[in-house]
Amino acid sequence: MEDRRFDGKVALITGAANGIGAGAARRLAGLGARVVVADIDGDRGKVIADEVDGLFTHCDVRDPEHSKAAVALAVERYGSLDLIALNAGISTGFGLGDDFDPERYRSVMGINLDGVVYGVHAALPALRESRGQIIATASMAGITPTPLDPIYGANKTAVVGLVRSLAPSLVRDHVRVNALCPSFADTAIITPFRAQLDATNLPILEVSDVVDAFMAIAQSDGTGDCWFVVPGRESQPFTFRNAPGPRTATGDRLPVDPGAFATGQEA
């Protein structure tokens, strides 16, 4: 039976002019969703928007007003917002040594972390109305160390932490939030270290595989999950080891409210 759960739903995707965002836009539109393509790349963004019979909006996710305007456009033109995919991201291409560039550092953090925060903040009122969902593109770099790009690892780890910490507080609003965590995928983001990856023969994900995982998240019922996407394995939520919980002076465990602490009880 044809999946019609997205028929008539409204999706806003940042970084949708290329790569994973463009693939998600095509897949959702193919299932009947109305899509708003948000990107700084106007030429490519308009091509994708035309292809999916959607809308394009110029959106620099480092500016919170741009996120607000993109959400407002979706609601004004389509009447609601059911899914926001906070997908815009770039690699860093430098470390913390002599090549460190504070200005580029702030730009990278602005896109990869602030853009998610601003997007969530802008979208929440509409998502509460629709009982919708948030999918943030993080990375396996948010789950495991990434020596090739430690600053990228830092901001993607922050996105993972944001998703896990935000989810319990949104349950009462019937809003789900999850993270997409692909390993190295065949997009422009791996350009700075593509030669190193090729030299190690490390498998590179096809964009379509990442979009498959994106759709699995969109169709799931969970919240606060971080779905790993790696070559040769079925994508699913990563199981985090719970942090040690508090004990009394006598050694008894204290109960932990999962609504307050996303990590739950002591392991």
Brief synopsis:
This protein is an alpha/beta fold and 267 residues long. It has helices spanning 19-30, 42-51, 64-78, 102-130, 150-170, 194-199, 207-218; strands spanning 10-14, 34-39, 55-58, 83-86, 133-137, 176-182, 226-229, 236-237.
Topology:
Blueprint: E1 10-14, H1 19-30, E2 34-39, H2 42-51, E3 55-58, H3 64-78, E4 83-86, H4 102-130, E5 133-137, H5 150-170, E6 176-182, H6 194-199, H7 207-218, E7 226-229, E8 236-237
Parallel strand pairs: 1-2, 1-4, 2-3, 4-5, 5-6, 6-7
Antiparallel strand pairs: 7-8
Helix pairs in contact: 1-7, 3-4, 4-5
Topology pattern, helix = H, strand = E: EHEHEHEHEHEHHEE
CATH fold naming:
Rossmann fold
- The name of the CATH superfamily reads NAD(P)-binding Rossmann-like Domain
Report on the biggest sheet.
Answer: 8 strands, mixed
Strands side by side in the biggest sheet: 3-2-1-4-5-6-7-8
Shape: globular
Instruction: Count up the helices.
Output: 7
How would you classify the helix and strand content by structural class?
A: alpha/beta
For the secondary structure, the number of strands is 8
Share of helix among residues? Answer: 25-40%
- Report the average pLDDT across residues: 89
Q: Please report the distance between the alpha carbons of the first and last residues.
A: 42 Å
Poorly predicted sequence stretches spanning 5 or more consecutive residues: 261-267
Q: What share of residues are in beta strands?
A: 5-15%
Radius of gyration over all CA atoms, rounded: 19 Å
**CATH-level-2 architecture:** 3-Layer(aba) Sandwich
CATH class: Alpha Beta
